[in-house]
Amino acid sequence: MTVEMQEPVALADAAALYAAMMAGATDPANPDTHVFACIVSARATGCADPLDDAVGLSPADLDLLLARHFAGLEADTNTARYITARHGRRVGKGVSDLVLAEEVDDLRTLLLDHRTADLPETAWMASAVARACLFPDHLWQDLGLTSRKDLSGLLSRHFGPLAVKNTGYMKWKKFFYKQLCDREGLNLCKAPSCGVCADYKVCFGPEE
């Protein structure tokens, strides 16, 4: 169902939407709440896809996440109405959609196979991170986070056994896809080892 409304100008800005969400947070000190507010506000204001598609969650899971972490976000506020208006999956899937969905599933499975705990938040994080891997910028930027440090923190909390494998400060998207290749026994790299590869700086180094 589409909610007829004008999008509040203030909430068209990710920072303003983040602040409004955190004002209604169940526990503002919870680092996962901060991360979820970053993800939802970034995708709600900067993506043409329906919000649940853009975040990577089903509409039901997105609603559950919002109820669990932003219980103070009253349904009759502009913030809640704005988020509700962004719900709703596209009708029909093309071939490219199905290929991308399989890619997201592979990334989600990789993350969940290394989960630290069996929590709803961990499953939501896995879905959101996997979906964000298909966007064009650094992963922390595509998740709407403040820095790579934020991203490293959430990965350590929820997917510790996987995060500790990134010992060379590899860029996270590159790292995840290399892990998928290793799982399949594939070697798509041009050099026998990362240290002697001409593209070393493409895969390693700061993500600013």
Write structural notes for this entry.
InterPro entries: NifQ (IPR006975). This is Nitrogen fixation protein NifQ. GO terms for molecular function: molybdenum ion binding. One of its GO terms (biological process) is nitrogen fixation. The structure is a single chain. It is built from 12 helices and no strands. The protein has a domain at 1-91. The termini are far apart. Helix 1 packs antiparallel against helix 2. With 208 residues, the chain is mainly alpha-helical.
Q: What distance separates the N and C termini?
A: 39 Å
Tell me the series of helices and strands, N- to C-terminal.
HHHHHHHHHHHH
**Global Rg:** 18 Å
Share of helical residues: 55-70%
Q: Percent of residues in beta strands? A: under 5%
Estimate the mean pLDDT confidence: 80
Low-confidence stretches: 1-10, 90-96, 191-198
Q: Please outline the major beta sheet.
A: none
Number of strands: 0
Q: Count of helices?
A: 12
Q: Choose one word for the global shape.
A: globular
Structural class: mainly alpha
InterPro entries: NifQ
Protein name: Nitrogen fixation protein NifQ
Pfam families: NifQ
GO molecular function: molybdenum ion binding
